[in-house]
């Protein structure tokens, strides 16, 4: 079922008018961009920013039409054909960073200074149309008609790519990543992830919410600014469908048994009271780490305050450990180890009690100056070949983590 807004129960006098106080002292402040897109500021506890933020006064062209998705009859997958994405910014110069606060010479997407900011992507893969009109969002003419409709057979089937794609700016600084943030800032981002997961899950027609960060040009990053993204899909993703099939096959307690299995083995790399990180038994990538809560939580909204508090420093240390693996001894990856940080969450309205929130952190970096490229067997057939034994990978990562200092507050 859709989740309630976690801030909705906060007393009105806990934050200035129009704002909402979330967990850990984070304050959310709503705004709009010049073309009507939603913009949300998430202020750190004790922020020095003023309550009022500047208005976006740019003269913007209308937003592109919502994309159309087509069904691949060979696999059953839905492919969103979003041609407007061809026009998105690609490695702009620092003085034209579209995620930095606006200046007289840089008409960026963020009109005011910020701690953390979330806004709707201007060239999204999904949305802005939904399956029914909500607020300023239009209704799609040919939205998916439920999961049965999406699974129905037939050639040449298409639907409107309803949903939402958002950009999460971790910092106003122009370079860095999640791992370069302070513990306080990381905690603010985690609160934003939970808040947006709740809001997006409640939108009509949304079936799954995906939080992720891409890092490095080798992964395909087109902006150097520290940021991540959130996708709200109109279907359950293919990867999650496979997971749900595994839970059906292996049993409803699958994640509980995985955590116990890895806890007893040689692949744990870092752990806390509430979280455990390990190289999985059948790792595909040269660097692959899974991070999971010990207690079941379907998504970020179900994490307790204590679990969110511990996640911030532990996750920062894990990310910094990836860079310490090779001691920054090569110029091949000057921006640090490239990775995809993929936060898998349960679908909005199925498997809430069995599919557990967990991070799958993967990198194609197989040596100090080498990448793993997916070729015939993996890319074409999905038949993976591991380059490094998972136990060896875990041992190396533990050694790297031992050299990483605690993250600063």
Automatic annotation (TrEMBL):
Q: To which pathway does this protein belong?
A: Carbohydrate metabolism; galactose metabolism
Composition bias type Polar residues, residue spans: 102-111
Stretches assigned to the Galactose-1-phosphate uridyl transferase N-terminal domain: 91-236
Entry-linked InterPro entries = GalP_UDPtransf1, GalP_UDPtransf1_His-AS, GalP_Utransf_C, GalP_Utransf_N, HIT-like_sf
Q: What is its EC number?
A: 2.7.7.12
Pfam families per record: GalP_UDP_tr_C, GalP_UDP_transf
| SUPFAM superfamilies assigned to the protein according to its UniProt record, in alphabetical order | HIT-like
Ranges for domain Galactose-1-phosphate uridyl transferase C-terminal come to 264-402
Transmembrane: present as a keyword of the record? no
Q: Which reaction does it catalyse?
A: alpha-D-galactose 1-phosphate + UDP-alpha-D-glucose = alpha-D-glucose 1-phosphate + UDP-alpha-D-galactose
Cofactor(s) required for function per UniProt: Zn(2+)
User: Region annotation Disordered: residue ranges?
Assistant: 1-27, 43-67, 90-111
For this UniProt record, give its keywords in alphabetical order, as a comma-separated list.
Answer: Carbohydrate metabolism, Galactose metabolism, Metal-binding, Nucleotidyltransferase, Transferase, Zinc
Q: Does the keyword Ribonucleoprotein apply?
A: no
Q: What is this protein called?
A: Galactose-1-phosphate uridylyltransferase
Ranges of Low complexity composition bias in the record: 91-100
- GO molecular function terms noted in the UniProt entry: nucleotidyltransferase activity
Bias (Basic and acidic residues) occurs at 50-67
Taxonomic superkingdom: Bacteria
Family listed: Belongs to the galactose-1-phosphate uridylyltransferase type 1 family.
């Amino acid at each position: 079922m859709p989740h309630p807004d976690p801030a909705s129960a906060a007393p009105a006098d806990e934050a200035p008018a129009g704002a909402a106080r979330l967990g850990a002292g984070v304050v959310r402040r709503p705004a709009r961009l010049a073309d009507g897109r939603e913009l949300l500021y998430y202020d750190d506890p004790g922020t020095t920013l003023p309550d009022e933020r500047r208005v976006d006064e740019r003269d913007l062209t209308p937003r592109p039409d919502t994309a159309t998705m087509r069904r691949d009859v060979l696999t059953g997958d839905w492919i969103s054909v979003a041609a407007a994405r061809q026009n998105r910014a690609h490695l702009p110069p620092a003085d034209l960073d579209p995620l930095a606060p606006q200046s007289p010479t840089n008409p960026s997407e963020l009109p005011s200074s910020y701690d953390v900011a979330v806004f709707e992507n201007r060239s999204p893969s999904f949305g802005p149309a939904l399956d029914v009109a909500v607020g300023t969002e239009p209704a799609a003419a040919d939205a998916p008609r439920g999961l049965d409709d999406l699974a129905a057979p037939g050639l040449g089937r298409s639907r409107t790519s309803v949903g939402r794609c958002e950009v999460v700016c971790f910092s106003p600084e122009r370079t860095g990543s999640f791992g370069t943030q302070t513990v306080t800032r990381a905690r603010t981002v985690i609160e934003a992830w939970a808040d947006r997961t709740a809001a997006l899950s409640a939108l009509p027609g949304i079936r799954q919410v995906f939080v992720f960060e891409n890092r490095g040009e080798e992964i395909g990053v087109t902006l150097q600014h520290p940021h991540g993204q959130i996708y709200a899909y109109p279907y359950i993703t293919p990867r999650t469908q496979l997971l749900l099939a595994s839970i059906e096959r292996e049993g409803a307690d699958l994640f509980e048994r995985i955590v116990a299995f890895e806890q007893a083995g040689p692949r744990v790399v870092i752990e806390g009271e509430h979280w455990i990180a390990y190289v999985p038994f059948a790792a595909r990538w040269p660097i692959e780490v899974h991070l999971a809560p010990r207690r079941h939580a379907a998504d970020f909204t179900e994490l307790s305050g204590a679990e969110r508090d511990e996640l911030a420093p532990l996750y920062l240390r894990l990310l910094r450990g990836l860079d310490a693996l090779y001691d920054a001894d090569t110029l091949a990856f000057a921006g640090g180890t490239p990775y995809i940080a993929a936060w898998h969450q349960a679908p909005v309205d199925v498997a809430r009690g069995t599919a557990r929130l967990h991070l799958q952190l993967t990198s194609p970096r197989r040596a100090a100056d080498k990448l793993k490229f997916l070729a015939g067997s993996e890319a074409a057939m999905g038949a993976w070949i591991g380059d490094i034994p998972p136990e060896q990978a875990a041992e190396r990562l533990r050694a790297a983590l031992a050299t990483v200092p605690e993250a600063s507050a």
